[in-house]
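To: structure subgroup
Subject: Chain for Friday's discussion

All,

I'm putting the inputs and outputs inline so they're searchable in the archive.
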Amino acid sequence: MNIPDKVVNRLTLYHFILDDLREDELYISSSRIAKFLDIDNSQVRKDLKYLDNPGKCRVGYNAKELKKAIEVKLGFKKTRDVFIVGAGNLGSALAKYDSFKDYGMNILAMFDNDERKIGTTINGKEVFNIQKVGNLAQRLNVDIAILTVPKEYAKAVANYLAGSGIKYIWNFTPCILDVPDNIKVWNENLVGSFLQFTNRDEVEDNNNDN
């Protein structure tokens, strides 16, 4: 069963909640999960149906079983090797986020065209010349790249990656990429996310004033 992207995102958030539960908290209700995320209880129940892991009436979901079901369904235990292209502030921050490993993402290396960065290491990840992407992608069987280059270089670099054997691009740049149809792109809209929650606060404030 294919899971919609929005459901995948929410299931990941549910996993965060389950991961933070105390050892003695054996069960969790859909209403409690909903309250954490400020969403409707029915949405949580609908999402959890993708897991074939029914809860118990008036008891809730077995926390450990539910956590494991999410991991299996989303493939947390299937490790995928990844490159970060762009060793600036954002790329460096992502390279330092060790928790990616808990969700099956193994960052192997970084790439940049800045001679001052090439040859350095960031959290144990060496920064290579971007011209080596294709060679290393083929040798190490890597087809996923996280793109964190400046906006003005994003389209050119994305097409270079597409021609270098990269099939999936996680795009953190504020730019809509124009790549071949066989390349899958996920746009991480940081600005849009910021505006969504700030505008939401303004709407709530206006409603309260009324």
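Points worth raising on Friday:
The two ends are 45 Å apart (CA to CA).
Helices lie at 5-19, 30-37, 41-48, 63-74, 89-95, 133-140, 151-162, 190-209.

D.
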